[in-house]
Give the backbone structure.
Amino acid sequence: MNDGSATGIEGQPVAAVYFAWGARLMPPDHTRGNGWIVLRAALLGALLTIGLAFPSAALLALVYRFPVPFAGYESGVAAVPHAMLAAAFYGVLGGFWLLGLAGSAAGMVIQRSAGRSGRRPFPMMCGVAAVIAFAATLSLSILDKVIGPW
């Protein structure tokens, strides 16, 4: 069934492989030796975790508080844009590296476990990335309660 168009996983057209979210984006690794699938899972885990840090910071600023550099803790609707810029500031100072490392490790573990169980790893990866991003931003929000005022 090859009409000259590019095919991807299991003979599906490439567009169907990469744009059908959840159905074919992250197939289980049935070969247990294909390092490209695990590498792609690590990259996707890192990008999801870094990307979800911004909505997590906005949510924390909306319902609790978030530290904004040179302004202190802010909360409420007016603090949401400041919190997102603060998340970018903290990310550039080293937070993106840490989130990327944690997200890629989680992506690799999830891909390996999904390969053994036959489950699709993408929904689980999204959930774990959201938890990691929320834990990182929550740790910034409560940092003064742990180490004292800063």
User: Anything to note?
Assistant: Helices lie at 14-19, 35-63, 80-117, 121-141, 143-147.
